[in-house]
Amino acid sequence: MDNPVSYEAVLARMQEDLVLRGLSVNTLDSYLRSVRIFLAFTGQPIDLLDTPHIRQFLTHLIREKHVAPATVNTYSAAIRFLFAVTLDRSLNYLQIPRQKAPKVLPAVLSRAEIAAVLAHCANIKHQALLTLIYGSGLRVSEAATMKVAAIDSAAGRVFVAAGKGHKDRYTVLSQTSLTVLRDYWRAYRPHHPDHWLFPSSARAGHITADGIQWIFARAVQRAQITPSVSIHTLRHCFATHLLEDGATLLQIKELLGHASIQSTTVYLHLAHLTAHVHSPLDRYPADPLGDVPDGP
What we know:
CATH superfamily of the largest domain: Intergrase catalytic core
Mean pLDDT: 89
Number of helices: 13
Largest sheet: 3 strands, antiparallel
Low-confidence stretches: none
Strand content: under 5%
């Protein structure tokens, strides 16, 4: 059996292993793609692959391809899964360390900028989509697969089915968002046999994540917003603005569906929490510095 056939057999087994563990479609696709690239790079029979081949591949990504640390770690995780699970072979993980990724804070738009983006949507459907994502802190995949019954107008909440980690949760429903959703419903009558809230334009299924990103990018461009942002920025804005309005980290964690509070603490660095805080230096009854001499 030649290498390409052998590779495909291993990839098929790995796909089965990923499915059995209930990992998301995105993780499945990412891991299989990463391992496929690794195998193509080495060109070696599966049985001969070992730690030096992994180190050589990861070094190639870092030095020659200039791949970002987080992406290198994704490749590393996929290869570890290949060896540990699919091939049932142990590795010395000290020889293939994870890259230390720089901690870069995500971009956050001001409330005025959010309003400008929403005002520059091309139509009421686009506005309903982006308003729901920002107003409820949704992931783009959650908005794309939202069903009509998930909008609980009486209780003022949104049901998110099988979010990240296959966890159900409730999040808040903005009254402004509800008003826009009702306008969208009256204008589009989006009846679909699978009850998608936002069917695709072809009515074949629901709108895609790429389609929502395109909608957001066009609205940002029309609003002349200069920071580099993505559709996920709206989720960051939701959490940051909630924190500024007095919500607790625990409340925000539950609304976002974070598995750990550590993921939520990043918003402490993004929120403008110093607006009503004064330095103790400014609380002195008189000028604390007095007449400072010019020199010795």
